[in-house]
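so my prof wants the structure for this chain in the tokens format not the other one, which i didnt know existed until like an hour ago. anyway here's the sequence
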Amino acid sequence: MHTIPPAFDLSGKSAVITGGGSGLGFGIARCLAACGAKVVLVGRNEENLKNAAGEIGAQAAYEVHDVTDLKATKAFVERVTSAYGLPDTLVNNAGIHLKKPAEQVTDEEFQSVMTTHVNSAFALSREFGHGMLARGSGHILFTASMASLFGIPLVVAYSAAKTAHLGLVRALAADFSPRGVRVNAIAPGWIESPMMRKALDSDPARRDKILSRTPLGRFGQADDVGWAAAYLSSPAAGFITGVCLPVDGGASIGF
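here's what i got, hopefully its the right format
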């Protein structure tokens, strides 16, 4: 008789989650912890991080760090690794949003979005990657977006950054996976949050348009993204690398 392996068990594993103090990052952290992982929440707001770690409990810790400070990336990775050990999973989730017509976006605004999403995620992947590659195992997960998959008006910088994530996933997977490190992405659809509600409550036409092209007919929850992250970080996904998994209620294939 075959024994079913604990394929989704993350006991004894650890994860570092940027932007882990709120929103999708917190949802990911909460679900990884529920599967047994120890999680380190990373962000700029210590109060948010402290509250989020306290809500998760003993399996959570936090580190205050600005991912856009690229000169500090190496020291940050060394500090985290020294304090908590080399993580099994790095979740590149930190990000900022910019909504305005493309012709009004300045070079400085465009570069700020790219630095936060792309340059910082690559720097962290490179620095944590050194240890993961030397160990011969690890998982790097990017939070992509519907804006990675199709054109959305008024978010040109965000779209460029999130599309670049998919290039990073493919290239890093091709480079790292032969040495034991998997690289994947999740593309969340429209997920319930105070920010989303604020945006859509004042724009019912946009809300209706989103729901009309979402086959499941509703918005997602942060835990929907979190459970997908837990799966991709688990032994159950051990033969999966270089993919972008939409968690979107079917929005990316709906009409």
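also thought this was worth mentioning. The chain has one domain: 14-193+221-246.
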